[in-house]
Structures are given as structure tokens and as C-alpha cells.
Amino acid sequence: MIVDAHHHLWDLSVRDQDWITGPGLAPLRRDFTLGDLRPEARAAGVGRTVLVQTVTVPEETPEFLALADRHELIGGVVGWTDLTRPDIAGELARLRALPGGRHLKGVRHQVQAEPDPEWLLRPDVRRGLTAVADAGLVYDLVVRPHQLPACVRAAAEHPGLTFVLDHLGKPPVASGATEPWAGAVRALAALPNTVCKLSGLVTEADPASWTVGDLRPYADVVLDAFGPHRLMFGSDWPVCTLAASYGEVVAVAAGLTAGLSEPERAAVFRTTATRVYDL
Fold this sequence. Notes:
Pfam family, one: Amidohydro_2
Shape: globular
InterPro entries: Amidohydro-rel, Metal_Hydrolase, Metallo-dep_Lactonases
Family: Belongs to the metallo-dependent hydrolases superfamily.
Protein name: Amidohydrolase
Largest sheet: 8 strands, parallel
Structural class: alpha/beta
Order of helices and strands: EHEHEHEHEHEHEHEHH
Mean pLDDT: 97
């Protein structure tokens, strides 16, 4: 069984996804539901998933928790709450007491959209990260390469909190450059409380002409830096559909990890996510 450690769902009749703008993202401007995902996951051998937040509104996380409570496919939720709120510890406790609250495994904020490259180092954010650690949750990092140095400092300052790097930190695949991204990723991986998702690569490449060869240098960096036991597969569905189908993304990840031993491949595709997200 494969665990997909990173996907999204949304219903535009419930809430707009205001980040879906411009012609490049136009194919995403429709509903993507669990009913759409389930046959794709089944065909690819995926038996458990982690549902990840998409918008920074407080209503989304309770909805995701309730959905996970009703559907076995969703093993965990990485939700959103305002890390800077004074009562963050109480809010995390409230979320965990809701229907499906046991499925809350982590918290994420759209740090990639923050203009301050050191947003994670603000005192109020640091206090919030401490509360996430105290609650026994993990923290997902959705950042761009220039924000990785702040991630390194935040992870070093919170050794009791597991930081999960989404989408390899969004390397510049389309340009073919690896530095300074690779150096920053290696610095993050040097900290034992960090994990990385093998996800999001196809949409950082040229969506119309990417090849597995374009993606391999970036996958090789994280495989070497984190090792397979701190690396986990994620589809980033439905965002991935801008460049590849669900099945293609699974096949690409299999190709990028073909040189690993069977236990190492099991880590990337199942056991790392199961351990980190307590599935």
C-alpha cells in the first residue's frame, strides 16, 4: 500500500480558492472532491492519504477533519490555524476535540506568500511553533528557496518539533539551476528533526515539456541529504494535474527512486509518512 502524504481537495461552491488566478491555473478552477480522487488513488495503489490545507481560513480545517472522520482513505490532516494568535495552544486543543480531531496531524501556513523571508523567526510565530510541538503535531513548510535559511534556523531553535519540507522547497526545476537551493536543503537536512516530501516537482518544471531527467537532479539531492527514511511521497493532486496525471506522478516517483532497495522504497512510499504523521 502506498501512502500519499500530500494532496488537496476543494469545493468552489463552499469557498473560493483565491490563489487560482490567471490562465496558467485555469484548469484548477473547478471542484476537486474525494469522489474524484478515490478512483485515481485506487488505480495507483494508494490506500491512505494526508489531506493538506489550501487556504488560510479557520473554517477549512474543521471541515477536513470531519471529512477524514467519515472516509478511511484520509488518514491524516495537515490543517491551518493562525500561529500568531495569543491562544494558539487552546485553539489546537479545540481542533483536536472536534469530530475527526484525532486526524489532525500537523499545521501549515502559506509561508511562501509572506513578503518577509524570515517570517518563521518572528517572536509570535516562534511561540506558535512551540505550541505546535507541545501539542504533539508536526509543522509543514511550504516555502520558496530564498526562505530556506529561515527554515534552518527555525528547525534548529525547535528541536522537539518535526518540520516537513513540502515540495522539496520548490527548486527552480524549469531553469535547471540547483544552487543556492541545494546548499540550503542540505543545511536543513543536517538537522535530525526535518523530513522532506518528494512532491511538487512536475509543476516546478516546464509543464508542457518536462522529462524525468529534468527532475532527477533535484530528487537526487534530497535522497542524498535526507535519506529515504526521512523522505515521503506526495502527489500534490490536483495541482499536479497542470503537468501530469495522478498515475503519472506516482510512476515518476517510482522511477526517481528505482535505485533504492525494497526497504528504502517502502520508506519513501509508506513507512516514513506513517511514522511522521502517526497514521
